[in-house]
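F.,

This is the one I mentioned.
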């Protein structure tokens, strides 16, 4: 009787272990078929200013969570981009290559607006970031407006 109690659990244990050995493992994903998502080099930066002093230089640093650290008119502030604007800026930033530089040379007194990702810099009028231009312009307007009047960075 005692032997029968030990044999039945042993048979069940061996049968369970063998069943696991016969099941097929799920296939590993093929690296060539997996979508690749390129992320921008954070922080994404927006600069507005002149080569020589024109009275102001704006510097906006967009963090990986959509938070924006801003230095305008000698003061620091923070705001949070809405999701759609943040996604648009991300899409624009991933098109910037580390070797990109603005394609035209600005005069010393000419106002420049640029988007920076990593070591690459592109002018706001670069066709690769055309969809982001209205977002960049609104973001620059927002950081100069009182908090209650901001539209995309609150």
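My design for it:
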């Amino acid at each position: 009787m005692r032997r029968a109690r030990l044999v039945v659990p042993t048979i069940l244990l061996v049968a369970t272990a063998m069943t696991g050995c016969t099941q097929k493992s799920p296939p590993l994903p093929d690296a060539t078929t997996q979508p690749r998502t390129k992320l921008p080099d954070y922080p994404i930066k927006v600069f507005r200013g002149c080569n020589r002093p024109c009275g102001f230089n704006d510097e906006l640093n967009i963090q990986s969570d959509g938070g924006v650290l801003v230095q305008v008119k000698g003061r620091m502030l923070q705001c949070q981009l809405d999701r759609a604007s943040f996604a648009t800026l991300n899409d624009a930033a991933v098109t910037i290559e580390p070797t990109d530089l603005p394609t035209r040379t600005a005069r010393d007194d000419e106002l420049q607006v640029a988007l920076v990702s990593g070591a690459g810099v592109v002018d706001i009028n670069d066709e690769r970031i055309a969809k982001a231009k209205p977002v960049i312009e609104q973001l620059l307007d927002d950081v100069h407006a009182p908090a209650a009047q901001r539209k995309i960075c609150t």
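Residues 37 and 94 are 10 Å apart (CA to CA).

Talk soon.
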